[in-house]
């Protein structure tokens, strides 16, 4: 096609210009097609291994809110799901960033027809936020956030989650992904399946935001399905760093779901605070870390960051089931070299949570939790599942 167009030009200069422009357009189109096609044609290694991030790209694109990876995900015993990562722009750069325009973005362009753009929306649009992928109610919530950085994180979480939801076969354009009073996000039900809920979780760090979605046959009262909370939104309720946090108990007309998932993303080179180990690890965990009982070859600082990430993911999965403050030391974790995690919930402090007065369903079965981790392209990506047996 390029050759035929070049032959039509009357001069060599015009022919060269035509050739360059044609090849440039073709390369951009090819890149977009290959991006989506390769993402959808990934081999089933993730489903077999049950761990996310096994096929993170070797180089991360620079376009803000572009899909960095899009992968099948297995979180047994839940139904298969998906893990999506999007590029999170730097709010401190104060530079316009080109919006990535792939098929996922175009497929959600109907979400905000006729919405009047406010000053806040125009500002974040200049930073690369594809506002067409956000529900009007999400935009209204975004406008109330105080900083541009928090606005970008909020938008990235909803965009990543909606792109993951699209992979389940539904657009969910009419369902706003808003946080409830616990900091969790109300999720839609799976299309054409009564009582079958879609579970999910969101996490972000500098440069990257991830979301996971998995299926569940869970149903409980009239309670909406939930996403694992964002620890920044919940202001430390689950992190339990402040003993005087007063969290409202679950309303009497609501009951906790039977299953929930959590995800966390952290940079491997993150430098943990000096007292982070004492803050999040129990005495036995600190001893295991010093003796390198995990068998991991990474530095002690990196393993501490990994343990922190695993606990973040676990708390996101556990909180929708318990709905109370979960101390860091209540759950013990030991990451292993194969990507699995030994999770111990037998501590007295955790058992106390299960029998705490006022918790709906606290005596209905045993609570189990599992977690997995992987390291790719300088990030720790951790996932967790919490299940209540016996209901």
From TrEMBL:
Asked whether the UniProt record includes Signal among its keywords, one would answer yes
| Molecular function, one GO term | magnesium ion binding
Keywords on record: Signal, Transferase
Q: Per the database record, which ranges form the 4'-phosphopantetheinyl transferase domain?
A: 260-349
Q: Does the keyword Ribosomal protein apply?
A: no
Which residue ranges does the record assign to the 4'-phosphopantetheinyl transferase N-terminal domain?
150-214
Q: Name one GO cellular component term.
A: enterobactin synthetase complex
Going by the entry's taxonomy, the superkingdom of the source organism is recorded as Eukaryota
Signal peptide bounds: 1-30
Biological processes, Gene Ontology terms:
enterobactin biosynthetic process
InterPro entries found in the cross-reference section: 4-PPantetheinyl_Trfase_dom, 4-PPantetheinyl_Trfase_dom_sf, 4PPT_N, Enbac_synth_compD-like
Pfam (any one): ACPS
What is the designated name of this protein?
Answer: Uncharacterized protein
Q: Which organism is it from?
A: Strombidinopsis acuminata
């Amino acid at each position: 096609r390029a050759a035929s167009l070049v032959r039509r030009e009357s001069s060599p200069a015009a022919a060269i210009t035509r050739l360059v422009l044609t090849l440039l357009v073709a390369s951009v189109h090819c890149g977009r097609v290959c991006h989506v096609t390769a993402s959808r044609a990934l081999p089933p290694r993730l489903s077999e291994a049950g761990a996310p991030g096994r096929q993170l790209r070797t180089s991360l694109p620079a376009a803000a809110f572009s899909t960095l990876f899009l992968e099948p995900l297995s979180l047994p015993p839940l139904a298969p799901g998906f893990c999506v990562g999007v590029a999170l722009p730097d709010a401190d750069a104060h530079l316009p960033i080109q919006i990535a325009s792939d098929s996922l973005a175009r497929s959600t362009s109907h979400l905000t027809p006729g919405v009047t753009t406010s000053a806040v929306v125009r500002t974040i649009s200049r930073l690369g936020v594809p506002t067409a992928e956000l529900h009007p109610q999400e935009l209204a919530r975004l406008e109330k956030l105080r900083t541009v950085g928090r606005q970008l994180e909020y938008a990235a979480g909803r965009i990543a989650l909606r792109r993951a939801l699209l992979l389940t076969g539904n657009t969910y354009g009419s369902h706003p992904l808003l946080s409830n009073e616990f900091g969790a996000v109300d999720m839609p039900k799976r299309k054409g399946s009564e009582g079958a809920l879609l579970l999910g979780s969101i996490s972000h760090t500098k440069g990257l935001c991830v979301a996971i979605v998995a299926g569940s046959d869970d149903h409980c009262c009239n309670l909406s399905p939930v996403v694992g909370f964002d620890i920044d939104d919940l202001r430390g309720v689950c992190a339990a760093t402040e003993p005087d946090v007063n969290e409202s108990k679950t309303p009497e007309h609501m009951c906790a779901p039977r299953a929930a998932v959590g995800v966390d993303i952290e940079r491997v080179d993150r430098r943990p605070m000096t007292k982070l180990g004492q803050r999040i690890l129990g005495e036995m965990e600190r001893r295991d870390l010093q003796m390198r009982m995990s068998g991991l070859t990474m530095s002690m600082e990196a393993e501490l960051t990994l343990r922190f990430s695993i606990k973040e993911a676990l708390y996101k999965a556990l909180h929708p089931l318990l709905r109370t403050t979960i101390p860091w030391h209540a759950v013990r974790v030991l990451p292993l070299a194969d990507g699995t995690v030994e999770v111990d919930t037998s501590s007295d402090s955790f058992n106390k949570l299960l029998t705490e007065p006022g918790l709906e369903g606290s005596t209905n079965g045993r609570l189990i939790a599992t977690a997995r981790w992987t390291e790719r392209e300088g990030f720790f990506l951790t996932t967790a599942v919490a299940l209540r047996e016996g209901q």
